[in-house]
Amino acid sequence: MDDVRSDILLPSGRSSRLGLTGVLTGLLLFLSPPAAVPHSGGPTAPRGSAYMGVGVRAHDGGAPLAGERSAGLRVTQTEGVDVSSHQGNVAWSTLWSAGTKWAYTKATEGTYYKNPSFGQQYNGPYSAGMIRGSYHFATPDTTGGKAQADYFVDHGGGWSKDGRTLPGVLDIEWNPYGASCYGKSKSGMVSWIKDFLNRYKARTGRSAVIYTATNWWKDCTGNYSGFASSHPLWIARYASTPGTLPAGWSTHTMWQYTSSGKTVGDHDKFNGSLSRVRALANG
C-alpha cells in the first residue's frame, strides 16, 4: 500500500491522518475473521482445538481424598491411549510394544470440525494390532445433539462388528470456549445428551460410551443417573483412583488417569482384561 496518500482530503478541505486511520480500521474490521471465544479456564482457544480432558487438569485434577473408594476398580486393567490432531502422526508400533492395547482418536467436534490427522490416527492402531475407536467432542451451544451425532457417524464415528472397532464416544465435559455448561440448564443438557445418544444408537446399533468427569456431570446435568444402565462410562480423573463416579454408575469401563502418558497422548486404563476390551468391541 505504498501508493496510498497519508493526507486524505476531508469535506471541509482539511487534510488529516486521522481520516486514513478510520478508513483502514474499518476495512480491517470488515475483512478480519471472527475472534475465537475466550473461556474462563485460560487464554483464547480456537474452535476445533478441544480434546479429551481439555478441562480436567484445570478443574478436577489432584490427589485422592483420604478414604476415597476405588469405584469398582478391577485388579486386571488394560492400557489404552487417546489422541487428537495435537499429536499428529503417532508412533503406534512404539505404543504397542510398550503395552498399549487400545486407542481412541478424535474424529469430530460440533458440526464444524474434522480431525485432519484422523486417517493415520484411526487406521494406525488397527494396523499395529490394537483395538480402536473414535470420539466426538460435544459443543451443545452450537447445534443439537441429533445433528452432532449424524456429523460424527458421517465422519469417522461409525461402528463395524469386526472385533477390533469400539463403539463411539461422546466426550462431554468443560467448555474450552466459554461457559462450562455451554449456557444450558441441567435439564437442557440432559435433553441434549439424550438426543445425541438416541441418534447414535439409531445410526449404528450401538450405545455410545460417555466420557466425562464427575464434577462436571454434577454441575451441568444435576448428577443425572438415567444413562448409566445402557451406556459405558469413561471417567476422567488425573489421580491415583477414579474417585466417586457420577450417579447411576457403580463401576467405570475406562479411566483417563493422566495427560502425560508414555510416548504420546492421554493415557487410560480399561477396567478389565484385553478379552473384556474385545467384548465391548463385539457388542
Automatic annotation (TrEMBL):
Q: What class of enzyme is it?
A: hydrolase
Q: Extract one GO BP annotation from the record.
A: peptidoglycan catabolic process
Where does the record place it? Secreted
Arranged from A to Z, the UniProt key words for this protein are:
Antimicrobial, Bacteriolytic enzyme, Disulfide bond, Glycosidase, Hydrolase, Secreted
Task: Kindly indicate where the leader peptide sits in this chain.
Answer: none
* Catalytic activity from the UniProt record: Hydrolysis of (1->4)-beta-linkages between N-acetylmuramic acid and N-acetyl-D-glucosamine residues in a peptidoglycan and between N-acetyl-D-glucosamine residues in chitodextrins
Main subcellular localisation: secreted
Q: Function, please?
A: This enzyme has both lysozyme (acetylmuramidase) and diacetylmuramidase activities.
Protein family:
Belongs to the glycosyl hydrolase 25 family.
Full protein name: lysozyme
